[in-house]
Amino acid sequence: QVTLRETGPALVRPTQTLTLTCTFSGFSLSTSGMCVSWIRQPPGKAPEWLARIDWEDDKSYSTSLKTRLTISKDTSKKQVVLTMTNMDPVDTATYFCVRTEYDYLWGSYRHHYWGQGTLVTVSS
Amino acid sequence: DIQLTQSPSFLSASVGDRVTITCRASQAISSFLAWYQQKPGKAPNLLIYAPSTLQSGVPSRFSGSGSGTEFTLTISSLQPEDFATYYCQQLNSSPFTFGQGTKLDIK
Q: In chain B, whose CA is at the least distance from the CA of A47?
């Protein structure tokens, strides 16, 4: 059974750095085609894709946020960590950790399993 | 970045109705599109990708079509549990952008 759980602070002050941890089970990030992505969703708005790390440790970032984001993995601990620097109130959102599979037949990725999300509020 | 525009943004319909949601991309994305359903307080749920392949467990009343820049999600006969918000997402090139969403509610 695949599960993902996001942990991190519920409240962050402006200019601080946010660190979120995704702890997963039911799959290995060393399996070919396996990835973990972070996607956020501001209240009442559409989801926004942030970053992805894959089985070969290749990383991909949102164009507009790439200078502020870092994604990393610890395969043995089954964890993926996302850090976002210089937080601002507009970064208030629910942050989701998502198991992402590269579908070799289709030639792209599927965001199939999602964590429940963690709401991060940025406020002074 | 590739922009996705969904229409309509809001849709009122009745149980049993056939509804169609459109997603238009700002540039050609081949068949690299997925559709999600999201209910309040829950994570998005993958319905369809590729863009006509149903994710396992998704009812057959859902179908997807399109290629290039125009895609559609059709629900053939609305059920009470289908009232939700629907999003398209392009997976042609990073960043994998989402449409703004279509909220489907009961007429």
A: B98
